Amino acid sequence: MRDLVAACTAGLLGRKPAIDLSREEEQAGSAEILLATLTGTRKATLLEVEAKVPDGQFAPLYDMALQGCHVIAEQMRNCLLEHACEGFSLRRSLRSGKKV
Which Gene3D superfamilies match (predicted)? Predict the structure, then answer.
């Protein structure tokens, strides 16, 4: 595995960007984007826009979604490392004859 994909939604609440809007906030009809990135390179693999984004609001909305992707990527990386360490520990225990 070379990289992970992380995705995050961001939308406008009033004129302020926010991530992970609730259903009620989404149904208010303001602009919303879905961004998926490769976590290592931070390159966008998907960008979907749900409604017209007001002038001057796309960059803050994109940056907010990118920050959300970064947070999700860190959490995924931590979970993968924890799972891998548990697996390696189990293998080591089995090889040495210890009961788990």
Answer: GHMP Kinase, N-terminal domain
Secondary structure in 3-state letters for the chain: CCCCEEEEEEEEECCEEEECCCHHHHHCCCCEEEEEEECCCCCEEEEEECCCCCCCCHHHHHHHHHHHHHHHHHHHHHHHHHHHHHHHHHHHHHHHCCCC
Each domain of the chain, given as residue ranges in start order, spans 5-70
The tokens 């390159």 sit on which residue?
A: 43
Quote the pTM value: 0.78
Q: What is the pLDDT of residues 71-97, one digit of tens each?
A: 999 999 999 989 888 877 766 666 666
